[in-house]
Give the backbone structure.
Amino acid sequence: MSITYRGKNAKAVYGLEILDDLTFENAARDVEVVEIAGRDGEIIIDNGRYKSVNATMSFVMWRNLDFETFENQINAIKNWLSLAFGYSNLLWSAEPDYTYSARVDGNVTIKPVNETRATVEVRFIFAPVKFLTSGLNVQSLSNNVAFASKGNISAKPLLTLTGTGNVTLKINGKDFILKNITGGIIIDCEKMTATNLDKNQSQMDKVYSWPMPVLKVGTNTISWDNSSFSVTIVPRWGDLV
């Protein structure tokens, strides 16, 4: 088995093969447990989110002659894994239908066994939702036409509206009001941001509703009241890790 991380296949590029079966703890709900003197039991406060998941991947690294030396290969692996500090897409060959979001947690441990083989251990932090890869593609929407969501949890989509003026999106009966748009706007419901189409300028001053829209499990309907706008969606269907 292998992974693809930051756009590079670990086995093909770096000679890395997963040594052990990868297992995950489940993504746990983030709750606060409060005990009050004189009251039996506990009070559970839901913080409205799921926690990230920690997992360690163990690899065996085989000498790849594309690198001039074994040391160069080791250094390339360290740079590939350590230089990016944020989350990146991770694909795992055992679950080809899903795209994970992960980042490296701390140091990468590489122990040479001989001149052609080493063991590698990497601690990853995974976002609590793994996305169905089919739901990461851009899809055009038809006004007021129902569509089915996949996955087992509500999804936080990426919506792109192209047009100028005011428009109200109605998502499963809930209004999301946008005003004074020039050219278009991108609504990222996961990051809770609004930007222009070039993604280089905030457009949060155009947003007149809160919270950001979500897609429910099952059938969803999205409509809008200004026919001069067109709407596309990256639905981001997913399941819990």
